[in-house]
Model the fold of this input.
Amino acid sequence: MRPLIHNLKPVSGIAHFLHLGLLLVLPAVIFVLVWLNLAQLALLTIVLSKWRMFAVRPRFWAANIRANAVDLMVGLSTVVFMINSGNLWEQAVWALLYAVWLLAIKPGNDIPMVTLQAFLGQLSALSALYLVWADGPTYGLTFLTGLFCFLAARHFLDAFDEPYARMLSYVWGYFGAALAWLLSHWLLFYRGVAQPTLLLSTLGYGMAVLYYLDHRDRLGKGARRQFIFIMLAIVLVVLAFSDWGDKVV
Done:
């Protein structure tokens, strides 16, 4: 189901430029709030920027929340990255990247752009989660990892009008949760990137490409074998060359 708030966005005239201006103001406001050490207010601003999700009848709220979940994941993760940045220039870069997301990536509605949105949403959310909560309780990491995977998968599959979108999203969410539960007992990092984030991003992107090619009837046996081999090779390399002595319990 397409989010109802898309119909509220101006597409031409002065309203369109005002809308773009407001989108540019949001990263600037977030940057200033983080610079002033008002992190909680910056996070709240991201949430309040999605007020239009509730500007419809309550029976549409759940669909709108799901449709805007990836945008929220990217926005909140960006604030987390800015908070944990080493200096002002890094925070400015994150604010600029968030502006690129709002102006260039988020508005896209074709298959490649929706795929990119889902990939970036899952990647950023998982990266932020393990950045600030690596020592959190296992059940928390497991639940949130599964939730982020589910929301990203649902965002991707809805673009194809997949009749089994909910079931497939639950499967991917369950897989992400199971992997998070297993690896959280021996949590490894690669230059700041947690092992669950790396594995789920690699496998998720590969499976999304396979699904897309199959949906377009362009997935031959040779291509399927190549993609599966590449995904398995990456997973094996990650596992084989991990320093299992460096762990977070």
Summary: Confidence is low (pLDDT under 50) at residues 1-8. The longest strand covers residues 189-190. The chain has two domains: 1-107, 109-249.
